[in-house]
Structures are given as C-alpha cells and as structure tokens.
Amino acid sequence: xxxxxxxxxxxxxxxxxxxxxxxxxxxxxxxxxxxxxxxxxxxxxxxxxxxxxxxxxxxxxxxxxxxxxxxxxxxxxxxxxxxxxxxxxxxxxxxxxxxxxxxxxxxxxxxxxxxxxxxxxxxxxxxxxxxxxxxxxxxxxxxxxxxxxxxxxxxxxxxxxxxxxxxxxxxxxxxxxxxxxxxxxxxxxxxxxxxxxxxxxxxxxxxxxxxxxxxxxxxxxxxxxxxxxxxxxxxxxxxxxxxxxxxxxxxxxxxxxxxxxxxxxxxxxxxxxxxxxxxxxxxxxxxxxxxxxxxxxxxxxxxxxxxxxxxxxxxxxxxxxxxxxxxxxxxxxxxxxxxxxxxxxxxxxxxxxxxxxxxxxxxxxxxxxxxxxxxxxxxxxxxxxxxxxxxxxxxxxxxxxxxxxxxxxxxxxxxxxxxxxxxxxxxxxxxxxxxxxxxxxxxxxxxxxxxxxxxxxxxxxxxxxxxxxxxxxxxxxxxxxxxxxxxxxxxxxxxxxxxxxxxxxxxxxxxxxxxxxxxxxxxxxxxxxxxxxxx
Amino acid sequence: xxxxxxxxxxxxxxxxxxxxxxxxxxxxxxxxxxxxxxxxxxxxxxxxxxxxxxxxxxxxxxxxxxxxxxxxxxxxxxxxxxxxxxxxxxxxxxxxxxxxxxxxxxxxxxxxxxxxxxxxxxxxxxxxxxxxxxxxxxxxxxxxxxxxxxxxxxxxxxxxxxxxxxxxxxxxxxxxxxxxxxxxxxxxxxxxxxxxxxxxxxxxxxxxxxxxxxxxxxxxxxxxxxxxxxxxxxxxxxxxxxxxxxxxxxxxxxxxxxxxxxxxxxxxxxxxxxxxxxxxxxxxxxxxxxxxxxxxxxxxxxxxxxxxxxxxxxxxxxxxxxxxxxxxxxxxxxxxxxxxxxxxxxxxxxxxxxxxxxxxxxxxxxxxxxxxxxxxxxxxxxxxxxxxxxxxxxxxxxxxxx
Amino acid sequence: xxxxxxxxxxxxxxxxxxxxxxxxxxxxxxxxxxxxxxxxxxxxxxxxxxxxxxxxxxxxxxxxxxxxxxxxxxxxxxxxxxxxxxxxxxxxxxxxxxxxxxxxxxxxxxxxxxxxxxxxxxxxxxxxxxxxxxxxxxxxxxxxxxxxxxxxxxxxxxxxxxxxxxxxxxxxxxxxxxxxxxxxxxxxxxxxxxxxxxxxxxxxxxxxxxxxxxxxxxxxxxxxxxxxxxxxxxxxxxxxxxxxxxxxxxxxxxxxxxxxxxxxxxxxxxxxxxxxxxxxxxxxxxxxxxxxxxxxxxxxxxxxxxxxxxxxxxxxxxxxxxxxxxxxxxxxxxxxxxxxxxxxxxxxxxxxxxxxxxxxxxxxxxxx
Lengths: 535, 402, 368
Prior knowledge:
The structure holds three protein chains of three kinds. Chain A has helices spanning about 1-25, 40-50, 80-90, 100-110, 120-130, 175-185, 220-230, 240-245, 265-270, 300-305, 305-335, 345-355, 360-380, 385-405, 410-425, 430-465, and strands spanning about 55-60, 65-70, 115-120, 135, 145, 190-200, 205-210, 260, 275-280, 285-290, 470, 470-475. By secondary structure, chain A is of the alpha+beta class. Chain A folds into three domains: about 30-145, no CATH class; about 175-290, no CATH class; about 305-475, no CATH class. Chain B is α/β, with parallel strands linked by helices. Chain B has two domains: about 30-240, no CATH class; about 250-400, GMP Synthetase, Chain A, domain 3. Helices cover about 35% and strands about 30% of the residues of chain B. Chain B has 14 helices and 13 strands. The N and C termini of chain B lie far apart (about 110 Å). Chain C is mostly helical. Chain C has one domain (about 10-350): Amino acid/polyamine transporter I (Up-down Bundle), CATH 1.20.1740.10. Chain C is about 75% helix and about 0% strand. Chain C has 13 helices and two strands; from the N terminus they run ααααααααααββααα. A two-stranded antiparallel sheet of chain C has the order 1-2. In chain C, helix 2 packs parallel to helix 13 and helix 11 (about 270-295) packs across helix 12. In chain C, about 55% of the residues are buried. Chains in contact: A-B, A-C, B-C. The interface of A and C includes residues 337, 339, 459, 464 and 480 of A.
C-alpha cells in the first residue's frame, strides 16, 4: 500500500516536472522572438498556419517604412481594420524624425482602443486567434497587437431554460466579454474583480473568474484558482467540462457547482460571496460553492413577496420528494404494504391491476422508461417534429397503454405526477439527479418495500451529508445546522429581515442590509384624514 | 487496487441475499381481500369460518364497468383453530387470503355462548389483523348469513355493518362500535365485562346472498343491529335489548347524539329533544368500605319536534322540558344498570373505576366483584339543557288552537 | 483516531437520537405496568448521575477516549485488556440493537423475510455511514432530528384526535407499591438506555468545545428521557396496562390504533421510518465507538478500514446471539443488564474514577 503510493507520488512528481519543462522550454518555437525582417515573419506565419485561407496578410508601405498586418478573417472586424488602421495610416504620416517610428505607430497611427507591444510568437498567435490584428514593422523585432475583435456573436436573448416571471429577461451569450459586461452592469463596484486565464492546451479557451473582493472568501478563491490551474486537458468546449474537472467529489449524482444562464442569478450569487467561472463559448456561468438548497431557489423567489416565495419553495421541495419517491411508493404500497392503502382505494387499485399482466415493478419500469425516452426524444427533436412526439407520447402513455391492458390507469397517474413534479425543480442538473435516484429507489422498493425505500433514503442522506463543494458542506445550513443562516432555506425571510449573507460562504463581511429596513406606513398618520382645525 | 477489489467483493457477498428474491412481496392481483370473517360452530371441527372476499373488479366503478357481478364471494372452511380453517380455505381459493382490510368479525350466538376465547389470540397476534376490526354477534342466525348478506346501498357489504354501527352510535346511541381491542381489554379486565353488538337478519333468511334480492327496493332480507351481547369470561351470558342499550351507551360516555321523547300535558311522546352533545362522568365514593357510584350526565340539545301546543319561547317551559328530559334519561340509565345488576355483569367498568380510585379496597372486592356489583348503589344525576329550538319558535299547534 | 470535530449542538442531537433509538420502540419498563413512565424518569435520574462519572473521567483526560485513559489509569497490563473488553462490549451492544431491529421488522411487516437480509442491508447502510466518518453521522443526525420530531408531532396529534387517550389507564399510580418500579429501574431503565451513555466516553473527545460537554450530553439525555417517558405514558394511556405489557412493540400497536376519517389508518410506515432512523443512530454510535476504540488500541491510522470487518462481525453475531426472539429478550432483560451493563456502565467507570482521582491528586501534589 505505502510502496504503491510512494511510486504513485514519484510518478506524479515526474509528471509535474515534465509539465514545468514544457512550459519553460526555450526551444519551443512559440517562445521565439519576432524577427527584424518582416518578410520572414510573414513566411513563418504562412508556414505555421499551412496557408489557411482565413489568415489575411496585408503588406503596406507607410512613411517609407515597410510592414504587414496580419489578422484572421471572421474573428477580426475588417471594417475596423480598414477604418482605424489603414485609413489612419493615410492621415498620419510621420514628419521627419519626430520620434521613433514604432512609437509613432503605437501612439498615433494605429487608432485603436487597445494597442499592445508584443515580442514573441506566442503572443502573436494569441492575439491573432482572439481576433486582434498583428502589425509587423520592418526592422523591429517586436510587433503591435491592436484590438479588432469583431466576430459574429449571438444577440442577448431571453433565457431559454431558466425562465422567470418578474425578473429581467436577458441571458448570457457565448461571448465571454458580453457576459462579464452583463454582470458588471448589475454590480457597479470596483470590488468586482475579474481574473482570466486560458485553459485547454489546444483550444486555449478564455476563462474568467469573477468575485467580489471583500465578500468572497479568499480561501475559496484561491482554491478555485488552484483547481482551475490544475486542469490539463486539450480543450474546454463548455462550462460543463470545467464543472466536471473541479468538483470535490467525482462519484455523485448531485451537482456540486451551480450554473445559470441568468445574469441576475449570477450577480446575486456573487453578492453572497460565491465565485463565478465564465467560460468563453458557453452561455452558462458556473458558480461555486454550491449548496443543496440552492437548487431549489429560483430567481422569482426574490422578486415576489416572501410569503408567496416561501410557499412556492416548499412546494418545489415537496415536488422533489415526489419526483424521487413517486413510483417507489406506488410499488411499495401495492406489493408490500397493502394494509396502508385505505380499503376502498386498495380495492380500486386492485380492480385496475386485475388485467395487467406485469408485476407492479415491471409496470412502473415500463412506464418510467417510456416516459424518459419520450422526454429525451422531445429534447433533441427539431421543433417541427416535436409536436408529433408529444401526440404520440400522450396517446401511447396515456390511453393506448391502458386500453391495451399493459398498464393500469393509476400507474399512468403516478408517472405523470412524478414527471410533472420533476420538471418543477428549477435547475436541470438537480432534476436529472432526482430522476436517477428514482430508479434506484424503485428497485429498492421492489425488493423490500418501505424498508428498502428508507434504506435508500438513508444512503442518500449519508451521501448528501458527506458531500462538499469547495470545502463547504453540501447540506449547509441544514446539516450542520446553523440558526443564523436559515433566512433563505425553507422559509425565505422578507428582504428587510435577510440581514446576513450566508456566513458559511463569505466569512467576515456578512452584513447585507442596514438596520430597520422594515417598511411601514408614514409616521405622520393618514393623509386622507381631514387636517386638524378644519372640522 | 487490491483493497478496492476486496471491498467490492465484500459488498457483493453482503448483497447476495437480496438477489435471491423478494419474500414479502405480494402483488395486489394475487390477494384475496378478506373483508369479513364469520365464525360458526363446526360440525366435526371446532369452527366453521366463512370468509367474505371482495371481488375488486365488480366493486370499483371505472372503465372496466363495475358492478357486473356480485361484489363479494363467500367461502367456508373448517378447522380446529382459526389458522387451520384459514389454511384449509386455500384449497378453495386461488389467491392468498389477506386480512389487513378485514373490518368485521361476526361470531354466531352459538359459538359465543360456548366461549370465544379460543379464537381471540389468532386475531390479536397476527400482525396482519387490524386491532380496529369490529366484532359483532350474529343473533338468531349464523355468522355465515351475516357475512354473505348483500346490500343495496353499499358497494362493499361489510360497510353496511361497520358504517352502520358508526352512524347508529352517532345518531341514536343504542349501539357502540366494539373492536377487537376493546373486547380483549374487557376480557382481561377484572372490573369490566365486554359487550358486543348483536345483529339479526330481518325477513327471509333464504334470500340472503341472493343477487335478485338487490333488484327490489325493499329487500327480502336485510341485517339489523339488535341488542348488546354481554360476555362473562369469554362466554355470552345474556342480551341487553335495545330499550336498555341506550342507558349502557350513556354510562359508557359514548352517546354523541340521540333523541329523547318526553310527554307533555298528558300527551305521550309529545316533545323530542335531539341531543347534540353529551358527557358522562363516573366517579366512585366509598362509604364504610363500600363503593358508591356517582354518574353525572350532562346533555345538550335542541327541540327537534314538539307535537303539542307548547310555548317554546318561554324559558320556564324550556326549563320544564329540561327537567322532563333529565328524568327520562335517568330512567333509562337506571333501568339499564338494574338490568345489568340482574345479570350480575359489570359491563360499565365500574370495577375498573373502583380499582383506580382505591386499589387496596379493590383487592378485597375483586374476588367477588360480580356479586358486589349486583348490590352496588348507583346515583345518577342528569343535567340536560335545551339550547335552541330549530328554526321555528313555538309549534304550529299553538296557532291552531287559537 | 479520526480528526473529526463536531459542534455541541450536533453532540446534543446525537445523544438524543442515541438515547431514544430503540428505547422508544421496545416497551421500556413494561414490568412496571402503568408506572412505566415513572421508572423511565427514575432511570433518567440515575443515568444523569452515571454520566457525571463519565464526565469526571473525561475531565481528567479531555483529549483521549476511554480505551486510552483506561491504560493511563490502570496501567498497560490491565488497561489494554480492559479496553479490549469495552470494544467487545460495544460490539455486543451494537449486535443486540441490530437484532432487536431485525426482529421487529420480521415479526411485524416482513414476516417471511429472512432476518439476515434485513440485518445485512441495515449494516451495509451503517458501514457506509461509518466509512464516511463521524462528522457525517453527526450531520445526518441533524437532518433526521427534525424529521423525527415532525413525525412525533404528527403522530401525537393523530393519537389525540382519534380519541385514543384514556388518562385513567395511567391510574392507579404505584398500584403494586414502589417495588416493581424500583426493580425495573435497577434492572432495566438505568442501564438501558441511560447507562449506555458510556459509549460517549469514546466520542466526547470529538467535541470541539469541551466546556459544552455537560450541557450537550445532559441536555440530550433529559430531552430523550422525557420523550421516552411521554411515549411510555401515551402507550399506556392508549393501550391500557394489560395490552401494553402484552405487546412486543407497544408503539407499533399504538400507531396501529390510529384511525381517522377512514383514510388515515395503519400508519406503520411512520413507525418504520422512525425505526430505521433510530436503529441507524443507535447501532452507528456503538459501532463507531468500537471502531474508534480498536483504532485507538491497536494504533490503526485509518479507521475506515475497520468498518468492514467489524460490521461483518456485528452482522454475523446479530444472527447467532439467540435462536429466537424469546431467548433474545430473556437475555436482554435478565442477563445483559446484570452481568454486562452493570459492570461496564457502572462498576468499572466508578472504580476508574476513584483510581483516577487519587492518581491525579498525587500528581497535583507532586507538581505543586
């Protein structure tokens, strides 16, 4: 055991060393400096990209200096290039030996928002591939990278998966910058910090970590960064990649990071001290740490009054329980504990099951699997065909199956209730976890009835209690119980009473609102009353 | 790696037993719900047990078209114990007999007179049985008749008896629901004798269980609650007829609502007070070591009928009616106590009261309690209040006489 | 030793769940008939005094469990075997509870299911919990604490609404004099469940704030004791003393009597819910104490490795300790309290405390 681990450790160390060398290797072509001869630079680019035809190389002569600008067609905005680089060249000729030509270019001629001096090829590729324009000037062993990003992007649309009734209607897009802007627009504080990095050895995906300095727990920020730095994978094509690579516990069905496509939700998470991870190319922003109850909080909870949102939240939790237990209870009730069903109901169910050829478990399994298939099919189908599926589904699940005597009507009711209950979980990741557990519990119920279900639930709760998200216990304010943090768990306190941020996340700065926030009638009394003296 | 392997194989071994089957699993369609059991005296074996099984398809209305056939089927088997009879019944029934929904145990008078102790433990011990199952005695008829009777109103014939007992306890107060637990509690107690409802078959007994009988609005045969059977040491020793039954229910504090008729100005049954609330308190006093029972009944109600010219707006008249009602209730209660004392059977649980009030004295009285009971002094005090008189003030009789 | 730390409130909840565990299920103090609740309360008082002994011992050695300080007090040669005996005792207790639990299910609901199936599944769940560590068990405790109280609340309301309570069944108090009550107290209620607090001598070092040990544990005991007494009283008031003393599991019978609106009846599932939860914590804590003790005594670094073998021992033993329920109960009521519980819960700790007292006084005088 110990020998094994020692060997493993050694190997890991070696691997780490390898990585280090890779990054630092001076012989790597990417770290080579830019050459003085711009022609050579151009031919190098041509060679590296294999003459890809979206690489645009335009040579120019400006104030008797030769040079070339290089950009990737489609990523860079060609109108910006013609208006603010080439046009500006014509207007700004260098007068004698005013200053150094390179300096002149950077300060005056290239009239872009952001210009950078770059020195090596790594930077050249970086700038080009993120849509910037690289300018090589003959005789200088450095280049200019001008910001000309301007690829086609999707407009900000309404959220498609996390809808709200009273909340804002914008949602994140695939563009990292747009997403950070959407959040910044909501939190206008210099304390909102963004740190960026690139992950993916091939894809070089931009990733931004956002948090509010002073509210977020520094330890967790450091932990998040460390876990992100640890990732060594060829590509990150969506935030789901990151999620799977930074979880505390790999073997679990429960989501231990939260994701949202709503800027308001992410902003509120940031304000509670969480850390957002924005991945370029995904309209879903990850937030961490996540706790269990968070997956039952919907944006609308905070836009409507507390009594209503409390009721709705309790309803959601109930729905989650139904979604987990529905068919399992049916199986346990009809095959083990017939005594617990009221007599008339037992007889009614028995009458319906009279012609059903399968045992309850098989019956339930058939219906549940059919439903899952239908749901899965409906999810991926083009919209035009979708309707057909729902009609077929309704007919197959609803009526034909019953009439054919394959399932009993009660089973149809059970399946529909569980399905609907399942959809009421606000976050899909949690809903799908419930679905998986449902099947496990169905099996347990078949073997041992309620006892099986209870053991399954016990297993589930042990598991839930053992989970952590970035070191925060997953069942946090419930277990370990914390009285002061119960403001947003089962009961959503009125906003004026939610004085604290979740203390287990943001240590230190936890006061959310001032004293005496409870609104009330004007102190002077009623305006409609006739003033004194008149009567 | 090796450790993981061991752990997993260990888990497998632990999980093995589960794979081999589902022991207590029983599909609904494999069960025969026993709704009621009738216990008669057997010919060669000790008991003849009739099982009333429900036929779910015929009971539940739904798209399968309920009510095509008879809702129940009755099978009869015999055995020296209840379990033996139940197991013997499997020779006739395709499904597993299932007792969790059994709501009624009917015992024939014959068996009851011989003693029903031998069947009680089966009902008490089996976890499938509900302790809330009602128990009744089939009077002048066999228990089989009772469980095979069909009814017009109730889809489940067993409900006819169980619901009826509940509603009559509520509306009339001449029967009380007695379940196995109550019965057993009375059986083991020194200071209380159990009582059980009696049921008779009205009309032609041959018509019982005949589906054609259901086509008529007036059935050829129907069941009716009649009297309370008094048990002593597990044997039926006598009956309380219905005129005395209400007194018993009063003392047991089970009366919820009933109607008391009183005479007015010489006219018999002129006024009926429907009581809506009634509370009985029984207390024990000791006089020279002899127990004295005080019964205080408080009764509230409204005038549901006044078939005579009586001025109900006059509080004094109401007072007078109160007094008459009190007298009537007292008469009934005292009557039933006398009746019980004649039988020397303490069905009211006075002995238990004495026991609780004075355990030491009770030890002396316990041995010969039945005789002590017969000579017990009982005071009855009734407070009755007419609270309101319906939606009319004085009856139309007053206007007629003007 | 695992490096777990739990809060005082978690300790409190564990004590409550542990004490109520199986005490509520089996008819505690049935020999005292309608005075069962009095003997429970007496047992509580006795248990509190016992706990003070454990607490004193803990005060002398606040950082180490019983198996360690037993060696410090009596020396290595006596202490080690004694510690081993304690571990065996904890395993035996866990075994008994598991058997109780399995018997309950096999006699009531799973009449034709083999005991080993019921027990092996339960122990599997518990092993998983132990494997996850003490902190997780404490958290699960918090999760189910409210569930249990919610159920108890619903149950009590249903019992009252169904009109099952007959206060007069509780009378006459002390019908047979003090003797049966005191007898029950000495033979049963002081050792089970209150003396079983001896388990916590293994667990107290896990508390993050050693000042709160007293309030957390004693508070938990008092709450649990009152709950058990109330349950006993409700059982008697619902069933009457005769049926109460005739029932294997009075609470199940009581719940079975609930009948409301022709719809709410046979709520055995409520009972089973409680059963699994209560059984889980009771067995878990005994089990964990055994695991922690073994790890401590034999210097295991990783306690998780021990959960499987010890779990397996508990499982096998739970099947073999008695051939039928009557034998199991007889042992539990007559042999175990006198020959096991008294020595391990009362006599040995008292002796240990006396020795520790003198040792520590000597130390103090020598240092000062």
